[in-house]
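Can you give me the bound-state structure? Components:
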Amino acid sequence: MNNDAYDVIIIGQGLAGSLLAWKLIQKNKKILIIDANPSSSASKIAAGIINPVTGPRVVKQENAEQLIKQSDLFYLEIEKQLDTRFYSSIDFRRIFQTDEEMSYWQTRCNDPDYNSLLQKTKNLENNAEDNNFFVDPIGSGLQANVKHVDCAKLLHLMLDYFKSNNLYICENIDYGDIQLLEKGIRVGHLESKKLIFCEGFRASLNPWFSWLPFVTAKGDILTMETDIKLSRQINSFGRWFLPISSNQFKLGSNYDWNTHDELPSRSAKKQLYQIFSQSLLSNYRRQFPFQIINHQSGIRPCSKDRSVFIGHHPEHPQLSIFNGFGSKGLMLIPYYCKVFYSYLYDNRALDKRDNVSRYWQDK
Ligand SMILES: Cc1cc2nc3c(=O)[nH]c(=O)nc-3n(C[C@H](O)[C@H](O)[C@H](O)COP(=O)(O)OP(=O)(O)OC[C@H]3O[C@@H](n4cnc5c(N)ncnc54)[C@H](O)[C@@H]3O)c2cc1C
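Here's the bound-state model for the whole set.
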């Protein structure tokens, strides 16, 4: 291995690759990040919501406190070092869709474990706050500790940072260009001690990790504009309504488990639009003051067992993967950057549930 060799080459500048690269740079590792820079990716279009309590059963994410703590530390540190803002708290109103959901909510409200996360039940039409254009026949609850990351801004900041420090190459890596050395790898003429794949859903094409049971979930997001003055509050009604300025908001998202292209889907757009219109109070439905200004889609890299895919290749430890963050990348990746760093450099074992080796015997 020559003296100019990198400590780590990362393939993929999505959220996983960017945040892991940042972590390694903070620890003085010599890194290079290579990305094809497609026009769309999960990270480029993600809504950026960090919400520890999700789903119709109102379930708290396992290890939520640690995940939130690491997100706070990670994103605030980047903001500080780059002298910028992309991370903030945001109000979150859950509009119950069924009596069952309401009943789960009430049960959780009496559970001390949920104390800091759920506030009170309220009826939308009886209060005077903004964004009150949704029907609310069963009631709503306010969730606390919800954060928002402006993902597009974060990715741009990271890209500028990598470029200005000569740590970035824009290229689509052909697996045939990767050569395994005894104690490292070569990509074209570049040598590195480790290669970490952060390829999002495209990892299912990676010949070294093709034995991992990736599941993909395409999602579409509409950006819309209105004359109504919006407050900074997410409304969730099976889909979510996320204000991004005083007169623009994002609307999303669906889960399409069968489509593998990233092209915006006309049927998903129609469905989102319909659900949104049907969720509006009747006077807003009659005089529809909302128009679509953008439509994007991306593919979430999910796993069959809903755990992440991280770890070394069992036979080629110079190759590793950092992936499988599904629909919760913003909340999971900061925590897993810390875990993965300790695994790479402090000999700390990974949890069996997270380590890709759990699937190796099934290959
Ligand atoms: C509609 C939608 C909404 C979402 N909303 C949220 C949300 O609100 N909150 C949340 O936490 N998560 C959300 N997510 C999930 C989140 O986007 C993902 O968890 C996260 O972005 C995954 O990041 P990644 O870096 O693993 O993958 P990606 O974003 O897919 O990045 C992979 C990168 O690898 C590059 N790459 C792959 N192969 C190669 C190669 N051979 N050569 C060079 N480059 C390569 C690609 O170009 C790409 O840039 C959402 C996802 C979608 C689709």
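A couple of observations. The two ends are 31 Å apart (CA to CA). The chain has a mean pLDDT of 94.
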